[in-house]
TrEMBL record, chain A:
Protein name: Na+/H+ antiporter subunit E
Residue ranges of the TM segments: 21-46, 66-87
Pfam families found in the cross-reference section: MNHE
Family: Belongs to the CPA3 antiporters (TC 2.A.63) subunit E family.
Membrane-protein topology: Multi-pass membrane protein
Keywords on record: Cell membrane, Membrane, Transmembrane, Transmembrane helix
Localization of this protein: Cell membrane
PANTHER family assigned to the protein according to its UniProt record, in alphabetical order: NA(+)/H(+) ANTIPORTER SUBUNIT E1, NA(+)_H(+) ANTIPORTER SUBUNIT E1
Family matches, as InterPro entries: Cation_antiport_E
Record keyword Repressor present: no
Automatic annotation (TrEMBL), chain B:
Region (Disordered): 99-128
Keywords, comma-separated and alphabetical: Membrane, Transmembrane, Transmembrane helix
Protein name: Na+/H+ antiporter subunit G
Pfam families (alphabetical): PhaG_MnhG_YufB
InterPro entries: PhaG_MnhG_YufB (IPR005133)
Membrane-spanning parts: 6-28, 40-60, 66-89
Length: 165, 128
């Protein structure tokens, strides 16, 4: 068991790297799987010092749910934003900065949250406060900034909290 | 059967074309730099996503082989696009916003971009 841990310090990363390599080769031959596996063993081994306390993902069904929710939101928000760009006069649009108090503490979780906010159109995450307790977000059109804040907290942060903490 | 697939593929291509166009149009129409930042983050999601789905379907149905390269493009885009957007946003905050024009941090000091001590070595042409 201990030997296994030394060879695979990060089994998920090993799996991911192998998968990425096979996809890059675009042909699932034994050749590419083997070489992907070699990369998947060597890279986690070399980069080990760079992730001292990596978070444990606790809730795999929630990870799947989170990905689906985000993908769906991207589609819906794309249509909304396209509507704003095409049909709303620039003078009627209310861009706003909002500050989101964070309950998440692990840097990885905050990174995922900030990335999600940027990828869902209409909001871009811009900055963190000094000690990382608040996230600054810019909205393309927010007649009601508080509602945007509550939705982000409820839809994304709550789920990430269950995944990471 | 082939014709149905061609229609589906064409649909995805048109969707991605429309969103790509709207994203670029937004760059012209929106007037302030922070709002303009929203346009490219959008073109990379549905605009590129549509082409990728069309490409997967095309190789799967018309060429009879599986090609999943496209999933990697999506993955890499989702990793890189937020970082680029964050850099541009940080630049904007650094050059054009003051702590007074941004919302309060809720008692957690300043926003990180403003919390950096002013650099005396900053060359004249980049200083505010």
């Amino acid at each position: 068991m201990k030997l296994l841990r030394r060879i695979f310090p990060h089994p998920h990363l090993t799996l991911l790297l192998t998968l990425v390599w096979v996809l890059l080769a675009n042909a699932p031959s034994l050749n590419s799987v083997l070489f992907g596996l070699i990369l998947g063993i060597v890279i986690p081994f070399i980069t080990q010092p760079y992730w001292p306390d990596r978070p444990k993902l606790r809730n795999w069904p929630m990870v799947v749910e989170y990905i689906l929710v985000v993908l769906w939101d991207i589609v819906v928000a794309n249509v909304t934003v396209a509507g704003i760009i095409l049909f709303k006069r620039d003078a009627d649009r209310k861009p706003a900065w909002i500050s989101i108090p964070l309950e998440l503490r692990s840097p990885e979780a905050i990174t995922v949250l900030a990335g999600t906010i940027t990828m869902t159109p209409g909001t871009v995450s811009c900055d963190l406060s000094e000690r990382g307790l608040n996230l600054l977000v810019h909205c393309l059109d927010a007649p009601d900034p508080d509602a945007v804040r509550d939705e982000i907290k409820h839809r994304y942060e709550r789920r990430l909290k269950e995944i990471f903490e | 059967m082939e014709q149905i697939w061609e229609i589906v593929i064409a649909f995805f291509l048109i969707v991605s074309g429309v969103f790509g166009f709207v994203g670029s149009f937004g760059m012209i129409k929106l007037k302030d730099p922070m709002s303009r930042l929203h346009a490219p983050t959008k073109a990379t999601t549905l605009g590129v996503g549509g082409v990728l789905i069309a490409s997967i379907l095309h190789s799967l149905t018309l060429e009879d082989h599986i090609s999943l390269h496209e999933l990697l493009i999506t993955l890499f885009l989702f990793l890189t696009a937020p970082v680029t957007a964050l850099f541009i946003a940080k630049w904007h905050i650094h050059r054009h916003e003051t702590p007074e024009t941004l919302p309060p941090t809720g008692g957690d000091g300043r926003w990180a971009t403003h919390a950096v001590a002013p650099d005396n070595d900053t060359p004249e042409h980049t200083a505010n």
